[in-house]
Amino acid sequence: MNLLLDTGILGQLCHPGKSTNQPVSEWVEAILKSDSKDRIYLPEVCDYELRRKLLHLISKGQSTQRSISRLNELCELLDYLPVETATFRMAAEFWSKSRSQGSPTASIDSLDGDVILAAQTAMVGVTVVTTNRKHLSQFVPARNRSEIIWGYAFVCIRGPVDNIAFEWSDHFLVQDSFGRTWHCRQEALWHSREEMLNKAELVAQLMSDVADIEPMYRKLISAGHRANEPTSIRIPIFVYSIPVSRCQQLEDLAATLAEDLNDIGDAANIPNEPPPTR
Amino acid sequence: MSMTVAPTDEELEAARRERYQRAAEKLRQWSQESREYDERVGELMDQELKREGIRFEECDEPAT
Questions:
Q1: Nearest Cα residue to A74 out of B45, B49, B24
Q2: Tens of pLDDT along A198-211?
Q3: Interchain CB distance below 8 Å, B42 and A12
């Protein structure tokens, strides 16, 4: 899935040491380090929106050139998307349309960065990652970061986990015994099958072939996951990633998972424990 | 007279991956080098963006 970063996200990336920005930074870092062909676009209008604020803060003595330098580096290293004539023309159409529909994104006398951003997004046909989905989603696919999912981790089975190491965060990475890295997000045990299938619509086609999943699952089961005893690893996980086109296989696996959970007793008895502290 | 050869798709892709790796390294480096600065300036940035968001809400208007 190709992504385009909104100004809010970009501002967070320029200050990744802020505690609330770290999950965003780690999430983007994981995408950048992955071996996929996914692109991350930095649109010129967001460069402008962020840069003017940083310069203003500097003029007031509240920031330094450090933030600008970081922004410059991101502009060089990500896929920079300049604004072109066609972009402005499409933005004008968005602006007119939003007003006709009674859903403007800025005041009448504003240049309206939202419609320019929407036009930049539409020009390359990607999804914009934003902290302000309300205004953008009327024009283009727009998602909050937490809605962009690369895989699933089901917190579902107790017992030791062989061959899997994982580092927990909002978006976390799991390394399996084959040395592959899985991009995961926590999911609770008791999602209904319908919920799972709906969420499958958000699964990107990033990861592996579905044929890899069942052997991993069998390995987890054979490693003693039917046992109910608490272990040193309190939240073992079951991980898989399925392309949207393979929904039937997801459904089949969900059924298999449900059967195994029945085997170990009432699923509701398994607490939805908080992630371990790191 | 000199001739330039356009890079192949493979070369462009390799260059992109290399850029992305560097970007990832930068993010990691920045997250560790200046937490106090990032907390302070990042908070100011948040406030500025929220302020703009509030202005948008206030300026919503009926269809014309």
A1: B24
A2: 333 332 222 233 33
A3: yes
